[in-house]
Design a protein that fits this description.
By secondary structure, the chain is of the alpha/beta class. Helices cover 34% and strands 18% of the residues. The chain folds into two domains: 132 residues, HUPs (Rossmann fold, 3-Layer(aba) Sandwich), CATH 3.40.50.620; 137 residues, Alpha-Beta Complex (Nucleoside Triphosphate Pyrophosphohydrolase), CATH 3.90.79.10.
Length: 348
């Protein structure tokens, strides 16, 4: 007898009551439920606080009598290649179901971010749950959990009442972790700095955007990365990046950042300038949902320094390091979408 498989694509950051109801209904209709946990390779942030294994732990704690039905797989983000993400998901589901033709997709169309639910016509008609999520979102739960003193009566909800009891126990215990306190600091940073920006945006009647200049700077099979010293993403690796200044050209701003901020004092300024002139315009990366600071537009040059015998330029300020392209930092140590940008430009 052919097994009937269900598929749920979700982030569950965290797993809350509406998620639980969807899972309960789906498990009644299928023999096996393939749970695709998204953003599986992203670094911890206010948007992605919990690892895939921790999210698995939340879900399995709620379904102890259905463990034989649950199949977990992890999907990474590809913000600049829907085709790559789609191929990944199809491969994961195919492997998990032995390429079964009897698959039912379960989901909820929240907004335009749910467009991916239309990309799997071979899995039959989408089984929707339109009313379950009314008045409840994981974003609200996270804000309540990490910043319980922010009690706006219009938006505030108590996280404890909106997650299943086993998840409540998990989250209470997780509050004692170093990661919890770091993310609380990060959220406090956002709230402190975002409020004036939101007020300014309202006064100007236009959204606030951030424009940055960046580069994939390579030489001798190595990529230059810098470690962020401030929130958001403190301690995470990123491409050399600096905000665009009103009085500087893009190239001048990048070169200044490499030499003055990162301490690459022995880098050849003219060499970088010539590479920029030869390269022309930088590539633009502007996924509106992939930067923690807000709407960010990144202008990124792909610059390959000539192969020479002298050592790689050294950072005197210990903020930057050269990594072999074959041994870049683990996915979860990268800030925002910088890893995706690097892979896209370097074709690796």
């Amino acid at each position: 007898m052919q097994l009937k498989y269900g598929v749920i694509i979700c982030r569950v950051q965290p797993f809350h009551n509406a998620h639980q109801e969807i899972f309960e209904q789906a498990l009644k209709q299928v023999d096996k439920l393939v749970v695709i946990l998204g953003s599986a390779t992203s670094a911890r942030s206010i948007y992605n606080p919990w690892t895939p294994k921790e999210r698995e732990q939340m879900i399995t704690a709620c379904f102890q009598n259905h463990l034989h039905q649950l199949v977990f797989v992890h999907a990474g983000d590809y913000p600049y290649s829907n085709e790559t993400w789609l191929a990944q998901v199809n491969q994961l589901v195919g492997t998990a179901t032995s390429w079964s033709k009897c698959i039912q997709l379960f989901g909820h169309r929240k907004d335009h971010t749910s467009d991916y639910l239309e990309w799997f016509p071979n899995w039959g008609k989408l089984h929707e749950f339109p009313s379950i999520f009314e008045g409840l979102s994981a974003t609200q739960v996270r804000e309540s959990y990490f910043h319980p003193t922010q009690k706006d009566p219009q938006t505030y909800l108590k996280w404890e009442k909106n997650v299943p009891p086993p998840v409540k126990d998990f989250l209470l215990q997780w509050k004692s972790s170093d990661e919890y306190h770091r993310l609380c600091e990060e959220l406090e940073f956002f709230l402190t700095h975002r409020s004036p920006l939101l007020k300014l945006s309202e006064e100007l009647r236009q959204p606030i955007t951030f424009d940055c200049i960046s580069a994939t700077l390579t030489r001798s099979g190595h990529l230059l990365l810098e470690k962020r010293v401030d929130h958001p993403g403190q301690g995470q690796w990123c491409l050399p990046e600096v905000p665009i200044q009103p009085s500087d050209s893009l190239s001048k701003g990048l070169i200044y950042h490499l030499i003055e901020n990162l301490g690459l004092e022995d880098i050849d300024r003219r060499e970088i300038q010539n590479l920029i002139l030869k390269h022309g315009f930088p590539a633009v990366f502007d996924n509106p949902r992939k930067s923690q600071r807000g709407r960010t537009i990144k202008h990124v040059w792909n610059l390959a320094l000539p192969e020479v015998t002298r050592p790689l330029p050294h950072s005197t300020k210990q903020r930057a390091s050269w990594f072999p392209l074959s041994s870049l930092p683990p996915n979860e140590e990268w800030y925002d979408d910088h890893r995706s940008i690097a892979l896209e430009l370097l074709k690796i």
